[in-house]
Design brief:
CATH class of the largest domain in chain B: Alpha Beta
Number of helices of chain A: 13
Number of domains of chain B: 2
Number of domains of chain A: 1
Radius of gyration of chain B: 30 Å
Shape of chain B: elongated
Number of strands of chain B: 12
CATH topology of chain A: MetI-like fold
Strand order of the largest sheet of chain B: 2-1-3-12-6
Oligomer: heterodimer
Number of strands of chain A: 2
Order of helices and strands of chain B: HHEHEHEHHHEEEEHHEHHEHEHEEHHHHH
Number of helices of chain B: 18
CATH superfamily of the largest domain in chain B: Periplasmic binding protein-like II
Helix content of chain A: over 70%
Structural class of chain B: alpha/beta
Strand content of chain A: under 5%
Largest interface: A-B, 41 and 47 residues
CATH topology of the largest domain in chain B: D-Maltodextrin-Binding Protein, domain 2
């Protein structure tokens, strides 16, 4: 009996070992190293100066850091209030048994995910190009107004362009989560509501929404975390910079610029830790909200 | 009498060995129960691991050289092959992307790891290597070696500036990249306009004004005098340098808030916001931009020497329709050229083969054959002054209506502005671009379009840009800049 339990323990360690070794090398060690780095300045090879909490105090006074936070929050709110309702609306439409060719529509809406973020970003650059881009051409053609060809999406309307492209990219992705949740809604509840004379709106508010709430909470959290980590889309769209007046500068882009363009890995680490604390805070708020909802039940 | 504890210690050793053997046998028994699929994965893991371990390239070359341009690689290979002597001193060329060179180079410098013996670095990525104190720069200081071998005089002096820190040279210049103005001569000559006599930007725009018409009456000009916009950082820097502006002084201290910068910035922003708007933003590298060039949407383009080969490759339809003239000056008698882009060859300190690398580098960077090939294949003129009388530069170029383009660029080469090697230059250029964006929107909202009306506001905006760079630099103790 004792042999069996030992055998299981040894087996567990043997199977866990590859993961633990890689996790320690690629996650634990860099995490500890970045904590040390955040207390140093590293301008140039072989030049490390201990600065204590200076990097963090500098962050609080750095207007670009606050600008990047502001931009990221605007993008996150755009995701939350535009992307998720759209994804839910699409899921409702595609869940309807009356709609023909639902599978094809699902594939179409999900397909940007199959292409990959960088590829979609490159297509976004082409679509939102001034004069020659598909978007401006379509707008000018629909309105018969050639002046619309001159809309400078990538210079003057950066945040709205980012949100529009992310809609294209993520609406279909989030739709799949909502669709799965909708398909799990207890049909007997809907039938009971119908017998009680509930219309489509009442069914949505009183039956469907409460049923999909756990999935919606998960999707909101996922979307917020994804938004705070936004990097590839503006990086490709704005050619590695933050765009005019840094209107497209996000937190992770600012981290990248400091670490890999200016070369101050210490300051970049401090930005990374600030972002990590934000994400942890967000997750804690989310967990508390879920718990208080459960308690209320 | 024996010590009873000796037996105890023997017993402990025995027990420990027994436990180890037991654990190993238990582990083996556990592994026996694994499915065939897992064994396949383990076998693949082991095989691929062994494959990777033993697949390192055979080291037949002693020297390693990284280049980012396929054209450079194609030029260097025959020259390297023709080198006589030991095969092992011929550099092995690796073609990598600019981003890959930057990340490998910086990882090597930061981690003290070996990199290549010779690295070609593009100007936009070299700044990070010059960060920190001069003694910590990852590249070897070449000044004394160049001086003792007479190379400092051999190269075009302003072409050394982007690779020099505090007067010390850290790279051999690959090019000069002077800038001229290329224009659609077929359209201009058909309109009876002569641009050859134009000397200033004002004269240039005045001369082309009759061509900026709106034939279809849709409110948008059919043609514009020049392709330029204040949101293009490279071209903003190019014009700023041409007009005598500068973002850093000789000690690499920021000088964004100078009155000359404000003057140039007001002038170039006025080109874009003026109701007659003589300029348009045509993308330099996209298909849409190339189509606009074919359509003659803009008549003139800022044209560094390397741009010629890009057009020859991507816009062959404008061949035989273009001509070059020196850039019009901002003021009469002013500078008629500028500079854009550049590459250097650096020698990492970590390399143990400096002497051999140096000989190879001299061969590649000062040979007449390579210089000739550089011009023939990518239209780039060499920075080696003694080679400027090579007949190749006198050859007529059919793309530019048989102008002797090489000689025209060479005539301007000594006058290109000197540039900074400050690692903060990219940030500074972007700050100036932002100042230009804000100046343009201020001008539009206040309906003020003349350069002199914009100058005070430009100075104010450049002061903000200057403070932003000062703040950034002040974090770095090695810059000597204080907040």
């Amino acid at each position: 009996m004792q042999d069996m339990s030992k055998q299981r323990v040894v087996f567990a360690w043997v199977t866990l070992a590859p993961f633990l070794i890689l996790f320690t090398i690629f996650m634990v060690y860099p995490l500890i190293q970045s904590a040390f780095l955040s207390a140093n300045q590293t301008y140039g090879p072989g030049t490390r100066t201990f600065v204590g909490f200076d990097n963090f105090t500098n962050l609080t006074e750095d207007p670009l850091f606050w600008k990047s936070i502001g931009n990221t929050i605007i993008y996150a709110l755009g995701s939350l209030f535009i992307q998720l309702p759209l994804a839910f609306g699409l899921a409702l439409a595609l869940n309807s048994k009356k709609l023909r060719g639902r599978s094809i529509y699902r594939l179409i809406f999900f397909s940007p995910q199959l292409m990959g973020l960088v590829f979609v970003s490159i297509l976004g650059v082409l679509a939102f190009e001034k004069r020659a881009g598909l978007v401006n051409r379509a707008l000018a053609w629909i309105t018969s107004n050639p002046a619309l060809l001159e809309i400078d999406w990538l210079q003057s309307n950066i945040m709205s362009t980012l949100i529009l492209i992310s809609l294209w990219l993520y609406v279909g992705f989030n739709m799949i989560y909502f669709l799965a949740a909708l398909q799990n809604v207890d049909q007997s509840l809907i039938e009971a509501a119908e017998i009680d004379g509930a219309g489509a709106w009442e069914k949505l508010i009183h039956v469907i929404l409460p049923s999909v709430r756990p999935v919606a909470t998960f999707v909101v959290l996922l979307s917020m975390i994804g938004s705070l980590q936004l990097f590839e889309l503006p990086f490709v769209l704005l050619d590695g910079g933050g765009g005019p007046n840094n209107k497209g500068l996000t937190i992770v882009m600012y981290l990248y610029q400091n670490g890999f363009e200016i070369g101050d890995l210490g300051y970049a680490s401090a930005i990374g830790w600030a972002l990590a604390f934000m994400l942890i805070g967000l997750a804690l708020i989310q967990i508390r909200m879920v718990r208080s909802e459960e308690l209320a039940k | 009498m024996t010590n009873p504890f000796d037996h105890l210690s023997e017993y402990r050793q025995y027990a420990w060995g027994h436990r180890m053997l037991h654990s190993i046998s238990v582990a083996l028994i556990s592994l026996r129960s694994l499915s065939a699929g897992i064994w396949v994965i383990v076998a693949l893991f082991l095989l691929s691991g062994i494959g990777v371990l033993f697949s390192t390239q055979s080291k037949s070359h002693k020297l390693e050289m990284w280049v980012f341009s396929p054209e450079h690689q194609a030029m260097y290979l025959p020259m390297i092959e023709s080198q006589s002597g030991d095969e092992r001193i011929k550099p092995h060329l690796s073609l990598l992307s600019i981003a890959a060179i930057k990340s490998r180079m910086m990882s090597g410098f930061f981690g003290g790891l070996p990199t290549a013996d010779l690295i070609e670095v593009e100007r936009s990525t070299v700044g990070q290597a010059f960060m920190g104190p001069i003694e910590a720069i990852g590249f070897r200081d070449l000044t004394d070696r160049m001086e003792s071998e007479g190379l400092l005089e051999l190269f075009n002096p302003p072409s050394l500036s982007p690779w020099s820190v505090q007067g010390r040279v850290f790279g051999l210049p690959h090019d000069v990249h002077p800038v001229m103005l290329a224009y659609r001569a077929d359209l201009v000559e058909a309109a009876g306009i002569d641009l050859e006599q134009v000397e200033t930007w004002e004269e240039f725009f005045d001369a082309l004004a009759p061509m900026m018409t709106d034939a279809d009456g849709n409110g948008i000009n059919d043609r514009y005098a020049m392709s330029f916009w204040y949101t293009q950082p490279d071209n903003v820097e190019l014009l700023l340098l041409q007009g005598g502006g500068h973002l850093f002084d000789a000690q690499s201290k920021p000088t964004l808030n100078s009155s000359i910068n404000a003057e140039i910035l007001s002038t170039i922003v006025s080109w874009c916001v003026d109701p007659s708007q003589p300029v348009i933003d045509i993308d330099e590298f996209s298909a849409a931009g190339h189509q606009a060039r074919i359509d003659g949407k803009a008549i003139a383009y800022l044209c560094p020497d390397w741009m010629c080969s890009i057009w020859k490759m991507h816009v062959p339809l404008i061949a035989g329709k273009m001509k070059l003239i020196p850039l019009p000056a901002f003021k009469e008698g002013g500078r008629r050229t500028s500079v854009r882009g550049g590459t250097m060859l650096g020698f990492p300190r970590s390399s143990e083969n400096f002497d051999t690398s140096w000989e190879s580098a001299k061969l590649l960077y000062t040979s007449p054959e390579i210089a000739r090939e550089l011009y023939r294949s990518v239209d780039i003129i060499t920075p080696v002054r003694s080679l400027w009388d090579d007949p190749v530069y006198d050859e007529p170029d059919p793309f530019f209506m048989n102008q002797r383009k090489g000689q025209m660029y060479i005539d301007l080469a000594p006058n290109i502005p000197t540039r900074t090697s400050s690692p903060y230059n990219t940030s500074a250029v972007l700050e100036v671009r932002d100042a230009a964006v804000n100046l343009a929107s201020w001008a539009k909202s206040n309906e003020m379009y003349q350069p002199e009306d914009l100058e005070a506001k430009a100075l104010e905006l450049l002061e903000i840009a200057h403070q932003n760079i000062v703040r950034k630099m002040a974090r770095n103790a090695f810059t000597g800049v204080e907040n």
